[in-house]
Automatic annotation (TrEMBL):
Residue spans crossing the bilayer: none
GO molecular function, one term: phosphatidic acid transfer activity
The protein, known as: Mitochondrial distribution and morphology protein 35
Any Pfam family matching the protein: UPF0203
PANTHER family, alphabetized: TP53-REGULATED INHIBITOR OF APOPTOSIS 1 (PTHR46403)
Length: 100
């Protein structure tokens, strides 16, 4: 995408992706070198980077009302079955209507 084609949303998305990459890299190191070694003493790593990334995403969501509406519609209680498995058949029980 050329500089002329970049939109504010594209620029914000790129900025958020950069912040996410920085956080992910920091978290991976903290998880490996601190958490898995039982050295965290109840403290979380990379909090400042996470706050920066989270603020970036929040700001971006506030600017894109259609995306927020889409997320809210997916969180609608009428869609709950998709996420908690209500629409899935029970394991080991075949649907008799689908037998050959």
């Amino acid at each position: 995408m050329s500089e002329q084609q970049k939109t504010p949303t594209t620029t914000a998305t790129n900025a958020c992706l950069e912040k996410k990459a920085m956080y992910d890299q920091c978290f991976d190191v903290w998880y490996r070198d601190v958490f898995l070694q039982n050295k965290s003493q109840g403290k979380l790593g990379c909090q400042d980077l996470y706050k920066d990334y989270s603020a970036c995403v929040t700001e971006e969501l506030q600017q894109d009302a259609s995306l927020v509406q889409s997320i809210r519609s997916e969180m609608n209680p009428s869609h709950t079955g998709r996420w908690i498995g209500k629409d899935l058949p029970e394991v080991g029980k075949a649907d008799p209507s689908k037998r050959k």
